[in-house]
């Protein structure tokens, strides 16, 4: 393995104080979990509004988001996908995507954290056996745990070594979203001497997990997506998701490529939904600014009394609105497609390569559309708000910075290429870490 940076004398970021949301914690706790789809969406809207109120200030301060994660916990949003038997919301992924989108409207960083948590907290559902699936869902939902993940596959693979009753994970990851504020962390690596990968959930607070506290990027500043060093983290064989602890081998019935690899289109659609949420948040923010602050241009020859009478402003807003509506309709359609695949195959794990491939290209379509639209809208709103809207204290720039940062995660050009092959050659993509 290549040498890894030393993480000595690392100073954690200052953290936000959960007490700032005490009144909201009390309200959500007294109300309990929502009991309907609309109830979950309304709860997400309430959280989004709370976060939007001071999102600009929190973005500038760049503190570790302990208060924000505590708010997600008290609101119950971490449990939206959890089984009702363990105290979860019992909702499906199509609803979860809308919840992520709503939260991202108010704060893109927290929408992203919620999305990653919902993916990582359900990892055992996809790549674990039935006992592991139930055990980890019970653990996560009953304790209201927030789950992060150290699974950046572009880095050297984490090395997994057998020590008899347990395994150890060793490695370094440049990116590790939400880990600093998580209760559990998903680790992934390659079992020594093989090409086989193993996923495992471990407690975050332990000596073998050292965070660099070095996330200070242009956007998504409250996601704690910095690097982490993993040193001799012990995992019982019974916790190696989808593996038989007696034979030390993956269970082919559990880790089948078409079904187990659904984790990839699932997370890709998480990305698209928080891109979309951020863009919708930008449009709402800019609209309020334009109607209250932007001035009409006095040197056009056809002078107007108000910015909302300016042709170019009305035209741009109308165009942004139309494209976001179309993107939202597509995202909803594909969210339902994905939920249908899970509903049909979650018990038998019998999804075919063709079904998985068709779904992946629906997801790719959403990725292309939301990337293009979100970048255009979050940059374009400055044209209809005016030069004063570029002030740091206004905070309109955070929407573009957030979208620009994460849309570099994996090149959308490859999604366009995949879709071209799908259309022209009837070719479905081979499952990969990004498809």
UniProtKB/TrEMBL annotation:
<dbReference type="InterPro" id="IPR046373">
    <property type="entry name" value="Acyl-CoA_Oxase/DH_mid-dom_sf"/>
</dbReference>
<feature type="transmembrane region" description="Helical">
    <location>
        <begin position="262"/>
        <end position="286"/>
    </location>
</feature>
<keyword id="KW-0560">Oxidoreductase</keyword>
<protein>
    <recommendedName>
        <fullName>Acyl-CoA dehydrogenase C-terminal domain-containing protein</fullName>
    </recommendedName>
</protein>
<keyword id="KW-0285">Flavoprotein</keyword>
<dbReference type="InterPro" id="IPR036250">
    <property type="entry name" value="AcylCo_DH-like_C"/>
</dbReference>
<dbReference type="Pfam" id="PF02771">
    <property type="entry name" value="Acyl-CoA_dh_N"/>
</dbReference>
<keyword id="KW-0472">Membrane</keyword>
<dbReference type="GO" id="GO:0050660">
    <property type="term" value="F:flavin adenine dinucleotide binding"/>
</dbReference>
<dbReference type="InterPro" id="IPR037069">
    <property type="entry name" value="AcylCoA_DH/ox_N_sf"/>
</dbReference>
<dbReference type="InterPro" id="IPR009100">
    <property type="entry name" value="AcylCoA_DH/oxidase_NM_dom_sf"/>
</dbReference>
<dbReference type="Pfam" id="PF08028">
    <property type="entry name" value="Acyl-CoA_dh_2"/>
</dbReference>
<keyword id="KW-0812">Transmembrane</keyword>
<feature type="domain" description="Acyl-CoA dehydrogenase/oxidase N-terminal">
    <location>
        <begin position="49"/>
        <end position="137"/>
    </location>
</feature>
<dbReference type="GO" id="GO:0006552">
    <property type="term" value="P:L-leucine catabolic process"/>
</dbReference>
<keyword id="KW-1133">Transmembrane helix</keyword>
<dbReference type="GO" id="GO:0008470">
    <property type="term" value="F:3-methylbutanoyl-CoA dehydrogenase activity"/>
</dbReference>
<feature type="domain" description="Acyl-CoA dehydrogenase C-terminal">
    <location>
        <begin position="269"/>
        <end position="409"/>
    </location>
</feature>
<dbReference type="InterPro" id="IPR013786">
    <property type="entry name" value="AcylCoA_DH/ox_N"/>
</dbReference>
<dbReference type="InterPro" id="IPR013107">
    <property type="entry name" value="Acyl-CoA_DH_C"/>
</dbReference>
């Amino acid at each position: 393995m290549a040498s890894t940076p030393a993480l000595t004398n690392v100073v954690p970021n200052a953290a936000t104080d959960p007490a700032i949301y005490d009144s909201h914690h009390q309200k959500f706790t007294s109300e309990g979990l929502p009991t309907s789809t609309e109830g979950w969406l309304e709860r997400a809207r309430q959280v989004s509004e709370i976060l939007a109120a001071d999102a600009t200030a929190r973005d500038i301060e760049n503190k570790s988001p302990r208060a924000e994660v505590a708010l997600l916990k008290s609101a119950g949003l971490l449990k939206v996908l959890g089984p009702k038997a363990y105290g979860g919301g019992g909702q499906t992924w199509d609803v979860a995507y809308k919840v992520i989108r709503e939260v991202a409207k108010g704060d893109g960083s927290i929408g992203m954290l919620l999305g990653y948590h919902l993916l990582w907290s359900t990892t055992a559902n996809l790549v674990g056996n039935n006992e592991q699936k139930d055990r980890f869902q019970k653990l996560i939902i009953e304790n209201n745990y927030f789950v992060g993940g150290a699974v950046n596959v572009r880095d050297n693979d984490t090395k997994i070594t057998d020590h008899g009753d347990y395994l150890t994970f060793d490695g370094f990851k440049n990116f590790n979203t939400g880990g600093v504020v998580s209760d559990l962390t998903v680790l992934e690596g390659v079992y020594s001497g093989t090409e086989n990968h193993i996923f495992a959930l471990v407690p975050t607070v332990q000596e073998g997990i050292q965070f660099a506290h070095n996330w200070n990027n242009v956007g998504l500043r409250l996601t704690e997506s910095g690097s982490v060093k993993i040193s001799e983290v012990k995992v019982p064989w019974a916790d190696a998701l989808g593996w038989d602890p007696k034979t030390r081998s993956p269970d082919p019935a559990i880790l089948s490529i078409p079904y187990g690899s659904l984790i990839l289109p699932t997370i890709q659609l998480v990305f698209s939904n928080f891109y979309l949420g951020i863009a919708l948040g930008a449009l709402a923010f800019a609209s309020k600014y334009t109607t209250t602050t932007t001035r009409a241009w006095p040197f056009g020859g056809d002078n107007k009394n108000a910015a909302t009478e300016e042709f170019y402003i009305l035209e741009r807003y109308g165009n942004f609105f139309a494209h976001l509506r179309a993107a939202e309709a597509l995202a909803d359609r594909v969210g339902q497609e994905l939920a249908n695949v899970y509903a049909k195959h979650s018990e038998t794990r019998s999804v075919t390569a063709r079904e998985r491939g068709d779904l992946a290209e629906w997801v790719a379509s959403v990725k292309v559309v939301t990337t293009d639209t979100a970048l255009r809208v979050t940059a374009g709103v400055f044209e209809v708000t005016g030069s004063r809207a570029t002030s740091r204290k206004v905070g309109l720039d955070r929407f573009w910075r957030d979208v620009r940062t994460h849309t570099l995660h994996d090149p959308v050009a490859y999604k366009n290429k995949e879709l071209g092959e799908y259309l022209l050659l009837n070719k479905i993509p081979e499952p990969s870490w990004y498809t």
